[in-house]
Write the structure tokens for this entry.
Amino acid sequence: MFVNDNLKIFSGKSNTALAGAVCEYLEIPLGAAKIERFADGEKVVRVEDDVRGRDCFVVQSTCRPVDEHLVELLIYLDCLRRASAVRITAVIPYFGYARQDRKDEGRVPITAKLVANLITTAGADRVLAIDLHAAQVQGFFDIPVDHLAGELVLGKYFKDKKIDKLTVISPDVGNMRIASRYAAHLGGELAIVHKKRMSGTEVRALEIIGEVEGRNILMCDDIIATAGTVCNAASLVKERGAEKIYVGATHGVLAGEALEQLEQAPIDEVVVTDTIPLAPAAKKLGSIKVLTVSAMLGEAIKRIHKNESVSSLFNDV
Ligand code: R5P
């Protein structure tokens, strides 16, 4: 075993399966804690292991129910700090609220910054996250952030598939950089869909820049929320003569009508990771596949614990 008794990993309630898989990778038991509610609904976290002077990690995705999981994470951090953990890392595989990261109209909040402040104030010394929607969200924290990419896991899966006549598509301008990395890694052409967001739940794919006729398509995104982005883009590329269409996204939020939309879209396979547990209804969708990020997270945790480079992880995988 490469770690000592000083490393402790705890889990919030959002994604206990992933936290368990991370511990399996590291060959350590999950830290003992109880999360309960008082009669009035308030939450309390009781850590049952001795954490004084220990290097502690709390795994919690701030996925649905977002506010509940966020508050639970904050309480966990406070609990560990008051129990004299020497260093606390908030491991946030999916960071909810990240998409509100700028004021693009009047009188709106910047929740990504607000949540970053809350996490720091609650007691986190570091953050370990995966695909924060926009890399600059790292700068909203005044503590170190290790930012992993789902691409490490998804890229390997699609490489192993050896898709021929491949065109990698960015379903919007924001994902262009990631799509071009996939195209370089997988050896495909690159295309982009011009998307217009009409509202939080409605998007339109307007035009494609790049060649899709007769090509197999891999569309990459960080999040599938309502699935409007990928489904609209898939319909457009299919209309323009694309053959197989694959979608790879790190976070399967799958909110609102997402499952119905994905079922009807001309998509052959949707691949997401386990940063968010898949809802039981989503498991019935034949085209969906879930890859685990547990080894990537476990490796990053090991390196943080041993004060080794995390960025070099990107060269190793
Ligand atoms: C947008 O900037 C993101 O990268 C995703 O494309 C978007 O959040 C997906 O949302 P939805 O699935 O609701 O279209």
